[in-house]
Design goal:
The chain is mostly helical. The chain is built from ten helices and two strands.
Length: 220
């Protein structure tokens, strides 16, 4: 029996985190079967901790249990994607507003550097590099907001959208569009303009660049 001690993870939690990362990375695709027997063999455990891990994933809405069929990676319908994206847009807007008001001088300097580095990656057509800088830019905003509750909720929403958001950058010219959308956002953050930062973030997540439409189309 795997009994966790202080500072250690239980076996179900360890397996949950590994599966969650595979879902986020797209290794496990929406609608894919999460076979208990195969997972138990892969992780060298009995099926009980795997079953517990899968239950935790269903509670996160990253997986769905279908009676007499098994547990599958959750594949949200279009209306759920829309709702999640709208929710994420509101959360990130609040984070941007708070960050504009609370960022330290060091954080503003780092944000400006990340944004500047992003442009070179766009010009080079370096998708992987740009995606990493894009994530770093958004993460800097979340941290700078100083609100751990909002940060946690954003991470949860982004995780549920991760398998679909990754396809946004498949669209031709999307790197440039994303960078251009960051311009007013970064300018507002650097000047401490909370309302403008919130609006720019909302436009970035929901409206401009057709990111919203891209997610829905990919899911069809």
């Amino acid at each position: 029996m795997d009994v966790p001690t202080a500072g250690t993870q239980s076996t179900p939690e360890r397996i949950r985190q590994l599966l969650m990362k595979d879902i986020e990375k797209g290794i496990l695709r929406p609608g894919q079967l999460l076979d208990e027997k195969q997972l138990a063999s892969r992780h060298g455990v009995s099926r009980t901790p795997v079953r517990e891990a899968l239950l935790m994933l269903t509670m996160q809405k990253l997986a769905v249990a279908v009676p007499r069929a098994g547990t599958f990676v959750h594949k949200p319908p279009a209306d759920e994607l829309i709702a999640l994206l709208e929710f994420l847009g509101e959360l990130e807007s609040v984070a941007a507003k708070l960050a504009a008001q609370r960022m330290t001088a060091e954080q503003r300097a780092l944000l400006a550097r990340i944004h500047q580095e992003s442009e070179a990656l766009v010009l080079a057509g370096d998708r992987a590099g740009y995606e990493a800088r894009n994530l770093a830019l958004h993460e800097m905003i979340y941290v700078s907001s100083g609100n751990t509750v909002i940060h946690e909720e954003i991470n949860n929403a982004r995780r549920r959208l991760s398998n679909f958001r990754r396809h946004v950058f498949d669209q031709p010219g999307r790197l440039r569009v994303s960078y251009d959308e960051h311009q007013p956002l970064v300018a507002a953050l650097l000047s401490g303009d909370g309302p403008s930062a919130a609006q720019a973030m909302h436009d970035h997540i929901i409206g401009k660049g057709k990111a919203f439409a891209d997610l829905v189309l990919v899911n069809k």
